[in-house]
Design goal:
The complex is a heterodimer. By secondary structure, chain A is of the alpha/beta class. Chain A folds into three domains: about 40 residues; about 190 residues, Response regulator (Rossmann fold, 3-Layer(aba) Sandwich); about 130 residues, Response regulator (Rossmann fold, 3-Layer(aba) Sandwich), CATH 3.40.50. In chain A, the strands form three sheets. Chain A has a seven-stranded mixed sheet with strand order 7-6-8-9-10-14-15, sandwiched between helices. In chain A, α3 packs parallel to α12, α4 runs parallel beside α5 and α12 crosses α13. In chain A, about 45% of the residues lie in helices and about 20% in strands. By secondary structure, chain B is mainly alpha-helical. Chain B has one domain: ABC transporter involved in vitamin B12 uptake, BtuC (Orthogonal Bundle). Chain B has a two-stranded antiparallel sheet. Chain B has a two-stranded antiparallel sheet with strand order 2-3. The chains are: A alpha/beta, B mainly alpha. Chains A and B meet through α3, β7, α8, α9 and α10 of A and α1, β1, α9 and α10 of B. Chain A: This is ABC transporter substrate-binding protein.
């Protein structure tokens, strides 16, 4: 459509001055021409290689059907690439780009992946718009993202209604999979990861009292907080203080003063790493002695940069640890460091795994078709990724393993390996 | 407990006051609000942090980097957002919008240049000491002292020196000042550069206090500074100081004895109440018709 209009305008401008009477005819001719052109060009004028959608084509692309060429799959990625939380989206894009290049090389001649990125800035409305655009204009075969659980709750139903697989790589809130049969995720829900960490820590340190602090305007953090509270009650801990803050806050002195007064054995923090690391730092500066256990958000090397020595002893459950003694993980960490000059975090790792899962499912499906892809994804079993082994249960919930790690000397090491 | 929380509040408040100085100075002279102030000081702080990390510099030269960067940005702001609009007969609020534009550009430039991540501040400003059983961090004390010191210095400078006189004359009436031979363009440029340079100090001090600086901090802290500007009385330096401390204490008490959800709500409710009693702000003068 955009092409047609541009051509019309250009034609109009040329025609306008000299022979006005002929203009109408020229316009009509150009319009017809434009129509036929756009039918061949297939929708948007993106930079991508494009996959001609023949006929009424509402069910993704059909071009992969011919046995000769590779399956050409255009995949949408809805990430936060600007604004306060852009760091997460940037890590995810790095992971996706690396996976795309590696997969295109590995499956050269069989599969050609292309990613269309959309930025949400962390806003739900933008996520919905991005998903609509990717489905209807770019005609992607699947969508990766969005970054935040809140965005997934907003945009997931849109993709589900349009029967387009949408694959969360960082949504750990409860209830993501209940959105519908086209919604997937490879990020372990916190309802699995947090209790694993809390039980491991409890077995070791025998806490009696606990305090909680969380970001109360973020779905992910609130969901983590609920899990922490429930688990603490199950473990028989007495909750002596409960405090909250907002995403973007930089001052936590009031809350931590209250917590310090309550003197808990363990402080449970549910937050994204930016605020979380600052809370940990401030807590130690104020002289809090309790052990600190954090949610999934702490699983980021940046925590050590921000919190420094204060991070020592922090306990976290994580799907991905760059220190994991596994050749696959180490190869990934090495390649990522060579390419981006820093260690991958869980966001990069799960993005990398997410695209790999989609690529392999596409190969099994045999062509770039949304429905066939969904069916293949739903049957995922024992996928060996850099963030551990992954299967989906009958409700497409990820079944994976969480590693309980503790911060020691500026990195996370498995809890069992530490003696104290 | 209450004593500790009051101390927390004063610490937070002095950072707000420090930010508000920059707004106050520019408003006092130009009668304009510089919406890019928050972004300028975060940009400067990030630049200083990056140079510190890259060259392994200690804190002191980093402060010079921060001030220099902020001053340059201030000059740029004056050149692109204030000056062109001063020359022509444009609506009163146009410079407000142009500074918002400048702020947006800085926001995105920061993400492109430094990434959206928080950057930790490599240096440290002392440890902490104990006053009556309460731990006080040296850096928090430094912020309070810096805020007070800068205000006193500015106050003296503006009231006592010839250049300060020129600033005051320009703020009174740029046209008259120009007729009387004051190079108003240069005075305004100097004021914006000065305000931004002070922002450079503020930015790095804040970074030291919070332990990290992120591009996204510019907006939030900028708005707090703006609230303090209005609360203290537009253009009043003592007002900015007191307003900052008051806002900080009210916020902290709201969190400590209420809930963090109402942090900003209670703070702004307090501002509204102040305005009901004193519409011109704490230290504001009754508006003069220009």
């Amino acid at each position: 459509m955009a092409q047609e209009r541009a051509i019309q305008r250009a034609a109009g401008r040329q025609a306008g001055g000299r022979w006005r009477r002929g203009a109408l005819f020229v316009l009509a001719a150009v319009f017809v021409l434009g129509l036929s052109l756009s039918a061949c060009g297939g929708g948007g004028a993106k930079e991508s290689s494009g996959s001609p959608a023949s006929g009424p084509a509402t069910e993704g692309q059909g071009s992969g059907g011919e046995a000769a060429g590779p399956i050409e799959a255009k995949i949408g990625a809805v990430l936060i690439l600007s604004g306060g939380a852009a760091a997460y989206g940037e890590a995810q894009r790095s992971g996706l780009e690396m996976a795309k290049d590696e997969l295109n090389e590995k499956y050269a001649g069989k599969l050609k992946l292309d990613i269309v990125y959309e930025d949400t800035g962390g806003k739900k409305e933008s996520a919905i718009n991005a998903v609509n655009k990717l489905i209807n204009e770019d005609r992607v075969v699947a969508i990766i993202g969005p970054t935040l659980s809140a965005e997934m709750f907003a945009a997931g139903p849109v993709a589900n209604e349009n029967e387009t697989p949408i694959f969360g790589i960082s949504n750990t809130a409860e209830g993501i999979n209940d959105i519908g049969p086209y919604v997937f995720r490879n990020s372990l829900p916190e309802s699995i990861a947090i209790p694993t960490a809390m039980k491991a820590a409890q077995n070791r340190y025998h806490f009696k009292t606990a305090a909680l602090i969380y970001a109360n305007n973020d779905d992910f953090s609130v969901s983590g907080y609920k899990t922490m509270k429930k688990t603490a009650e199950e473990l028989g801990l007495e909750i002596v203080a409960e405090e909250s803050f907002a995403v973007g806050d930089v001052d936590f002195s009031a809350q931590l003063t209250n917590i310090k007064k309550a003197d808990p054995d363990v402080l449970l923090i549910s937050a994204l790493y930016k605020e979380g690391a600052l809370v940990v730092k401030k807590a130690r500066e104020m002289g809090l002695r309790a052990r600190i256990l954090g949610g999934n958000g702490f699983n980021n090397p940046k925590v050590f940069e921000i919190a420094g020595d204060a991070a020592e002893g922090l306990i976290v459950a994580t799907p991905f640890s760059p220190e994991k003694n596994d050749p696959k993980v180490q190869a990934f960490v090495k390649a990522y460091e060579a390419r981006y000059g820093k260690k991958p975090d869980q966001f990069a790792a799960q993005a990398y795994d997410g695209l790999t899962i989609i690529a392999e499912s596409l190969l099994k499906a045999g062509k770039a078709d949304r429905k066939l892809l969904r069916d293949q994804l739903a049957e995922l079993k024992d996928f060996e990724g850099v963030s551990g082994k992954l299967s989906f249960d009958e409700r497409r919930n990820p079944i994976g393993e969480a590693v309980v790690v503790v911060a020691k000397g500026g990195k996370y090491v498995p809890l069992e390996s530490v003696s104290d | 407990m209450l004593f500790e929380q009051l101390l927390n509040g004063i610490t937070v408040g002095s950072t707000y006051a420090l930010i508000a100085v920059g707004y106050t100075l520019i408003f006092g002279v130009l009668g304009m609000i510089n919406m890019a102030h928050g972004q300028i000081f975060i940009f400067a702080a990030l630049t200083a942090i990056v140079t510190m990390s890259a060259f392994g510099w200690p804190l002191l030269p980093a402060f010079f980097v921060s001030v220099a960067c902020a001053a340059v940005l201030g000059a740029l702001l004056e050149a692109v957002a204030f000056r062109p609009l001063r020359k022509k007969d444009v609506p009163h609020l146009a410079p407000l919008i142009s500074t918002i534009g400048f702020a947006t550009i800085l926001d995105d430039a920061m993400i492109k240049l430094f990434g959206a991540d928080s950057r930790f501040v490599p240096g440290k400003l002392g440890g902490s000491f104990s006053v009556g059983g309460v731990d006080v961090r040296t850096v928090d004390l430094a912020i309070l002292v810096a805020a007070l010191g800068l205000m006193a210095l500015l106050h003296l400078w503006i009231q006592k020196t010839p250049f300060g006189k020129a600033i005051r004359a320009t703020s009174e009436s740029p046209e008259t000042a120009a007729i009387l031979g004051i190079p108003t363009d240069r005075v305004i440029l100097a004021t914006v550069v000065l305000a931004s340079g002070l922002g450079g100090v503020a930015g790095l001090l804040l970074g030291l206090s919070y332990g990290a600086v992120a591009p996204s901090m510019g907006v939030g802290l900028g708005f707090k500074g703006l609230a303090v500007l209005v609360l203290g009385g537009l253009g009043s330096l003592p007002g900015a100081m007191l307003g900052g401390l008051l806002l900080g204490v009210v916020e902290v008490l709201a969190v400590a004895y209420g809930s963090s959800t109402y942090r900003d709500a209670i703070a702004f409710l307090m501002i509204i109440l102040v305005f009901l009693v004193r519409p011109q702000g704490l230290f504001g003068e009754t508006p003069v018709q220009r």
